[in-house]
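Tokens for chain A. Residues wanted.
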């Protein structure tokens, strides 16, 4: 539609006046030039019910509460230091995954499913301190919640017609999901409180999880007249983190962000090709993947390095990966975790390059179309990571032709947390295994059809055959 109607389209979706932005120029107008004007979110039924009256970081209205919550997320929950503290969890869960894949060498496996399970385990341990006993129910709940949160159901298109909420059963389904998630989250939070009260947990050994951090803030600021964090707010924040990571793992990355990555997000045909290029051993236990004489990324081989792997080496390798992450960058360009960025709302009448935008207009930025704009990308539909070898473009929101995580004040705050769960598994998949398509399929036969919702994912799970390439050491 953008190719036919231009980079700024107006759509009347039921009762909701909506504009769709599909070019870097207009995206910059919305997310930089008039960032404050478009910093708030429209009211969405799913967010109001599932997120405790829209009090999570993603859908909270722009204002003091959102600013304080974002400060907590960026300085405490999702800081570089906090993300690094979860490295042992990632290594342990990925070690289990890689060992399992190795045991299935030569057989067809559902890589999508296994990656999803592993991502959920990492997220659960980071958020709750351990795997949730109701994890399967919780995962199913969050999956359904994400599907219902796109903002395009009939209840959101005709918000004044309350009868439609009942006829479509949207509100009923949302309230059922909310009650189930609230019960699970309540049990987990109460367990944390009891552990702290009875000192059953050795705080000197166990790293703080996300709930620990939020509960501490809740207690320290309970009497703060300007800003306090209620138990419901804590539940909203944790649920949002889970939704982000689960969405990303199904994108494999994804998205979403929230974090969910590896082979699922990019052309598996290209993955099979690059696997044959191999990885070279460099100094110590740092591995580099080379293409056309250039390192695409590097990673510490956590399996051969064992317990002697130093924190310094891990930190160095992770920082280098951020610089050399062409594979992930290209994946994000073609398969943005959230193809239509979370909607914004015009807070006051303004003009975008001469076009007047009324107050309360819903604004959708089409990151999917922007990432495939032939005006900015040569052979835009081709998966070609090498295009980023000599490019300074990154996903931090300063290059508006490339905004997989958004930009401006409402840019995704969980980029660091999400990427930490992306590049390590991807590097390990490519280092330890070669990959083949099953049933004699050719690369061009692979169905890359996408299923769209609030997040984008492959319509079909990725089925591949792992072939031992650099086998795991025998313990």
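Reply:
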């Amino acid at each position: 539609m953008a190719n036919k109607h231009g980079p700024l389209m107006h759509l009347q979706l039921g009762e909701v006046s909506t504009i769709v932005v599909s070019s870097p120029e207009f995206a910059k107008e919305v997310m930089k030039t008039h960032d404050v004007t478009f910093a708030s979110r429209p009211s969405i039924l799913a967010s109001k019910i599932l997120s405790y009256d829209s009090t999570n970081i993603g859908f909270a209205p722009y204002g003091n509460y959102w600013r304080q919550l974002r400060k907590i997320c960026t300085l405490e929950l999702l800081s570089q230091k906090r993300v690094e503290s979860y490295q042992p969890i990632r290594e342990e869960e990925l070690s289990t995954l890689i060992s399992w894949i190795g045991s299935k060498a030569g057989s067809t496996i559902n890589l999508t499913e296994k990656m999803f399970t592993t991502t959920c385990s990492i997220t659960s341990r980071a958020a709750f301190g351990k795997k949730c006993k109701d994890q399967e129910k919780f995962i199913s709940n969050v999956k359904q919640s994400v599907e219902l949160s796109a903002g395009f159901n009939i209840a959101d298109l005709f918000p004044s017609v309350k009868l439609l909420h009942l006829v479509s059963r949207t509100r009923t389904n949302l309230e059922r999901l909310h009650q189930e998630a609230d019960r699970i989250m309540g049990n987990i939070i109460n367990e944390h409180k009891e552990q702290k009260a009875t000192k059953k947990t050795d705080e000197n050994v166990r790293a703080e999880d996300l709930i620990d951090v939020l509960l501490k803030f809740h207690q320290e600021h309970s009497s703060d007249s300007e800003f306090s964090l209620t138990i419901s707010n804590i539940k909203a924040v944790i649920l949002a983190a889970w939704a982000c990571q689960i969405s990303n793992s199904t994108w494999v990355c994804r998205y979403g962000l929230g974090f969910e990555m590896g082979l699922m997000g990019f052309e598996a045909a290209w993955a099979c090709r690059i696997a044959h290029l191999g990885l070279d051993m460099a100094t110590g236990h740092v591995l580099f993947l080379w293409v056309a004489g250039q390192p695409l990324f590097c990673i510490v081989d956590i399996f051969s390095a064992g317990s002697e792997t130093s924190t310094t080496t891990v930190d160095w390798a992770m920082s280098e990966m951020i610089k050399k992450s062409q594979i992930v960058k290209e994946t994000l360009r073609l398969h943005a975790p959230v193809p239509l960025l979370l909607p914004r709302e015009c807070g006051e009448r303004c003009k975008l390059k001469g076009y007047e935008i009324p107050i309360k207009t819903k604004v959708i930025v089409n990151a999917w179309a922007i990432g495939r704009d032939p005006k900015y990308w040569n052979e835009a539909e081709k998966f070609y990571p090498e295009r980023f070898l000599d490019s300074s473009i990154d996903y931090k929101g300063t290059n508006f032709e490339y905004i997989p995580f958004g930009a401006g004040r409402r840019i995704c705050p969980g980029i660091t947390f999400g990427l930490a769960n992306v590049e390590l598994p991807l590097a390990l998949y490519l280092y330890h295994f070669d990959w083949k398509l099953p049933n004699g399929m050719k690369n061009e036969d692979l169905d890359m059809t996408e299923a769209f919702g609030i997040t984008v994912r492959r319509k079909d799970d990725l089925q591949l055959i792992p072939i031992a390439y650099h086998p795991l050491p025998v313990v």
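Residues 2-468 form a domain with the Cytochrome p450 fold (CATH 1.10.630.10). The CA atoms of residues 69 and 84 lie 21 Å apart.
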